[in-house]
Amino acid sequence: MRPGSGAAVGFARELSEDTTALVLGENLDAIADEAAKFAPVLAADNPTLAAPVADRWAHVIAEVARAQNAELIVATSTTWAKDIVGRAAGLLGGAMASDVIGHEVIGGANGELRLRRPMFAGAVNATIVLEGSPQIITVRPSAYDAPEPAATPFAIEPVAIDTDTLPNTTRFESLDRKTGARPDVTEARIVVSGGRAFKNSEDFEQHIGGLADALGAATGSSRALVDAGITPNSLQVGQTGKIVAPELYLALGISGAVQHLAGMKNSRVIAAINKDPDAPIFEFADYGLVGDVYEEVPRLIAELDGSNSAQ
Ligand SMILES: Cc1cc2nc3c(=O)[nH]c(=O)nc-3n(C[C@H](O)[C@H](O)[C@H](O)COP(=O)(O)OP(=O)(O)OC[C@H]3O[C@@H](n4cnc5c(N)ncnc54)[C@H](O)[C@@H]3O)c2cc1C
């Protein structure tokens, strides 16, 4: 299971013990076994679902939700979910909220579900109530923890797929994605991000990549570096990039423009290094160091390497 998937199960289980996990794709035995540690599993395992083609997956999600009389359909807020879950909501009717970061149930177990979600690129956090059924919700991966795994795994049942009724209007061609060993920036517990302070890809990899590897972290980037061709688009954090909320976000040589903050300001702890003591990032940082990243980052890496090898 992707690390973030636990958040959806965790959120669902906080609301109801009667939670079922639906896994979709092909050759799902390993992932179904893993999901069965948390909830009974329905496995939609079929070659026609091998690639996450949104109209097919949404169709299966909607069919299963109807058959189960599901009142609540929950997924983790990811790039794929943005494409797939909204379509499932469209097929099901009801009401949808995406990117939920918190909730409250008012008036007892069956009371009103109030959801907290950022809006307008994080400028406000809205508290909303969905009217209608079913309710379709995506939650931020970092906002909820996976439940404790059960001592005895839950049952796994196959979902029968009627391939004749699956939508056939989109064909999967290919997928380009980074195949590095580092975690994805949206799923990592620690994100090390670099900004315009870094002059080229080699410097970025040596400093940001080096520190990320020493911490087991993901790398992120400001848009300034993406626009300059120094980092790939997939690393961009911010209003027009990825929204992240890791336990620790390191902003290195990043000024703290409002569009960058929109993507990371909900991180649990923010630490920044910048040579300008008046850089706006320091207003949002829990820890700040005024200094040159070309001096401070190698020092940090050396300290971490020293403590790692001492263990
Ligand atoms: C519609 C729109 C959408 C946008 N979306 C995004 C987005 O999604 N993500 C995003 O990041 N930006 C986005 N931007 C761009 C954003 O406005 C900023 O231009 C960008 O975030 C700046 O990146 P930066 O902080 O790396 O660079 P700068 O603002 O140039 O800051 C560089 C910082 O590095 C410091 N520095 C320089 N050298 C060193 C050194 N040797 N050691 C230490 N510190 C040093 C400087 O003091 C400075 O604070 C968007 C802009 C618009 C208009």
Polypeptide structure, described:
By secondary structure, this protein is of the alpha/beta class. It folds into two domains: 5-165, Rossmann fold (3-Layer(aba) Sandwich); 190-310, Rossmann fold. It has nine helices and 14 strands. The protein has helices at residues 5-15, 29-35, 54-67, 79-92, 201-215, 223-227, 258-264, 281-284, 293-310; strands spanning 21-25, 41-45, 72-76, 95-100, 102-106, 112-119, 124-129, 135-139, 156-158, 190-194, 218-221, 248-252, 269-274, 287-290. The strands form four sheets. A five-stranded parallel β-sheet has the order 11-10-12-13-14. Strands 1-2-9 form a three-stranded parallel β-sheet, with helices on both faces. A three-stranded parallel β-sheet has the order 3-8-4, sandwiched between helices. Strand 13 (269-274), helix 8 and strand 14 form a beta-alpha-beta unit. Helix 3 crosses helix 4 (79-92) and helix 5 (201-215) packs parallel to helix 9 (293-310). The protein is globular. The two termini are 30 Å apart. The mean pLDDT is 92. Residues 195-197, 222-224, 236-241, 253-255, 257, 259-260, 263, 273-276, 279, 292-294 line the site of flavin-adenine dinucleotide. Flavin-adenine dinucleotide is lined by residues 195-197, 222-224, 236-241, 253-255, 257, 259-260, 263, 273-276, 279, 292-294.
What's the layout of helices and strands?
Blueprint: H1 5-15, E1 21-25, H2 29-35, E2 41-45, H3 54-67, E3 72-76, H4 79-92, E4 95-100, E5 102-106, E6 112-119, E7 124-129, E8 135-139, E9 156-158, E10 190-194, H5 201-215, E11 218-221, H6 223-227, E12 248-252, H7 258-264, E13 269-274, H8 281-284, E14 287-290, H9 293-310
Parallel strand pairs: 1-2, 2-9, 3-8, 4-8, 10-11, 10-12, 12-13, 13-14
Antiparallel strand pairs: 5-6, 6-7
Helix pairs in contact: 3-4, 5-9
Bound molecules: flavin-adenine dinucleotide.
